[in-house]
Amino acid sequence: MRDGAEGRTRAPRRLGFAVVRGRSMQPTLYDGDRLLVVHGGRPRTGGLVVVRLPDGVSAVKRATRRERDGWWVERDNSREGVDSWSVGAIPDGDVLARVLVRVWPLVRRVSRPPH
Question: Which of 41, 49, 52, 79 is such that its CA lies 20 to 30 A from the CA of 87?
Fold first, then answer.
């Protein structure tokens, strides 16, 4: 596939699914949420991405800015998980997919504390 604006060849995009594991993206995403992702999609600042962390684990994170060495990614829950504050920028080759939408659960039930 050719990128007309820059004339470079880029990998074809394909859709897939990802399952959230852990609590690092709460309150945005919860353990077990299912996501529709596009492999080969370009990250967008502020958007969610699936990345391969230096220990080889794949994780969903928020792309907060583009750095010279890759993407700076962060978690939404500062008390859980790993992000660029502990491992540095994620190289472009380790940004695996861009999250398009949460597909399950369709609606999140919010429990209210008793009065």
Answer: 41
